[in-house]
């Protein structure tokens, strides 16, 4: 009986060791994937910062003004002035649409005689 118990205990220890070995390697692989993803995210943030800097550089008002002057014959772009803007109250909004009545109900008002 003791022999069977020793054999079962030994098999359980071997099984647990194998399971722990596999879990260790799975954990190491997950950590490596996480490190790789974090590196990709850092690289994407760096690319985004560079793109934002380039966008800010390309959208400088003096540069855009010069481009508009160079291409005036083709684009006909004029400088914006404050007189070109209107007020909100000057905007003609369309009227609200009338909703169709699909099931009309007659309402009868009955006077309550108990009221003073």
TrEMBL record:
Name recorded for this polypeptide: Cell division protein FtsL
Species name: Roseobacter sinensis
GO BP, sorted A to Z: cell division
Domain of life according to the entry: Bacteria
Keywords: Cell cycle, Cell division
